[in-house]
Each structure stands twice: as C-alpha cells, then as structure tokens.
Amino acid sequence: MERTLLHICCAPCSVTCIDSLREEGIEPVGFWYNPNIHPYTEYRARRDCLRSYAEQVGLTLIEQDEYGLRKFVTAVSHTLEDRCGICYAMRLETAAAYAAAHGFESFSTTLLVSPYQRHDLIRQIGESIGRKYGIAFLYRDFRVRFHEGQQRAREAGLYLQKYCGCVFSEEERYVKHRPLEKPPVQVWPKPVNPKKLARMQKAAANAAARAEHERKMAARQEPPASPLSSEE
Ligand code: SF4
Fold first, then answer.
1. Number of compact structural domains in the chain
2. CB distance 111 to 139 below 8 Å
3. Tell me: the pLDDT tens digits for 1-24?
4. Nearby residues of 127 by Cβ (< 8 Å), 6 or more positions away
C-alpha cells in the first residue's frame, strides 16, 4: 500500500480527505504543522480537536507542534496582501521534508478541500516542493466533498473555526468592508449630535420668546394704581 503523508490544516477539513483516500485504498498518515494559526488559544483548539478526531477514526498522526507566530509573521511581513503562497509553502515544505526523510512515497494536504483557498496555487507549490524533495505530491481535488465534510464535522461536534488561521485573516473577518483607520473622536461623555443640538437651541429660544410674550401680556392686564391714595 502506498505510504502517503497527509498534511492536515484542521480536523473538519480532514474528514472527507481521509475518507476519500481510504476509499482509494490509501491509508494516510496525518501530519500537523500549522505555524499560521493565531492566537495561541485558536492554535491549541484546532490542534487538540485533530488529536481527538485522529483517535476517533484510527488515524496515525504525526505532530510538529510549533506555535509559529513570529516565524510566520516574519516570513510574510514583506507581502502581507499576497501572503497565502508563502503560508502554503511553509507548511508543505515541512511536510515534504518529513515525508522524504521517513520513507513515504507521496504527500498531500487537506488544504485541497477548501473552496476558499487558492487551489491551483496549492497544487503548483505542492508539485514544485515535491520535485525539490524527490517525492510525489498526491494531488486530489477534494473540494467536491467540502460541504459533506463540513456537515459531518458539525454533526460530530468538531471545533469549527471562524477564520482561515493567521491574525490577518481574523482581522479580515471583521473589517473587510470597513475602513481600518478612522479619525479620533470623543466617545465619552457622548458628544451631542449637531442636529440635535440645533433643535435643542431652537426649542430653548422659542421657550424664552414665549415667556417674554406672556410677561408683556400680563403687564398690560394689571389694573392702574388707585387715585384715592393721592386725594386723602
Ligand atoms: S489567510 Fe489562511 S492561507 Fe492565507 S496566510 Fe492566512 S492562514 Fe495562511
């Protein structure tokens, strides 16, 4: 049986990749190496979820357990908007090196299941790294079973992440359609809205005018002083 090292980005993505390979008669060995997942609590949640899923489905799992915040940020800092290729290469190169050093015939990745990743770029990088290490990149278009995998992951209670992995993808989740930089504003005490302030000033002026008018009307209605007091 062909020995394939399957780089795994997270448990939910691995569900149908493992099944598909097993259906082909390939028993993959899982390989965890993802220095692109931040912050640490997120990294740990995904890693631990994979540990327990591997046990559940009887998958041999190799871990290169490295929370690589600094290494990752340093590697992509010169090209933040085009960082994914570097991220794929970091992970696939480490997987290929391990596979080549441990007698595997091929390596692959669960990144190939996601319709949100740059599929063709992953394939291109995988094949190029494979040539470098003298090991085949096992390409499969796992995307056809992506939704099935997500559904099964939900049913199995696996941890489902809300963003791709790096801090930049976490930021994009929240601020994709909003400006990142805004001018400073006073938030407390809450400044009065200028329109509301104009309305309040107008109401105060109206109230003052009304009071003045009423004072004048009252003055006109006062009876004149009694003449008796001067005739006595
Ligand atoms: S968005 Fe995802 S693939 Fe791209 S750099 Fe971040 S973690 Fe890597």
1. 2
2. no
3. 789 999 999 999 999 999 999 999
4. 137, 139
CA atoms of 99 and 86, how far apart (whole Å): 20
- Kindly report the protein residue whose alpha carbon is nearest to atom 1 of ligand 1: 169
Structure tokens that stand for 11 in this block: 């448990």
Full-model pTM: 0.83
> What separation in Å is there between the alpha carbon of 197 and the centre of ligand 1?
47
Q: DSSP code of 163?
A: S
With a 6 Å cutoff on the Cβ, whether 122 touches ligand 1 is: no
Q: Along the chain (232 residues), what's the average pLDDT of each consecutive run of 10 residues?
A: 93 98 97 98 98 98 97 96 97 98 98 98 98 98 98 98 96 80 87 88 95 91 63 42
Give a yes or no: residue 228 inside a domain.
no
Nearest ligand 1 atom, CA 118? 3
Q: What is the CATH number of the domain that holds 27?
A: 3.40.50.620
Enclosing domain of residue 208: 186-221
Cα 33 to averaged position of ligand 1 atoms, centre (Å): 14
103 and 203 fall within a common domain = no
Q: Please check whether residues 78 and 129 belong to one and the same domain.
A: yes
Q: Is 12 in the pocket of ligand 1 (CB under 6 A)?
A: no
Domain membership of residue 227 (yes or no) is: no
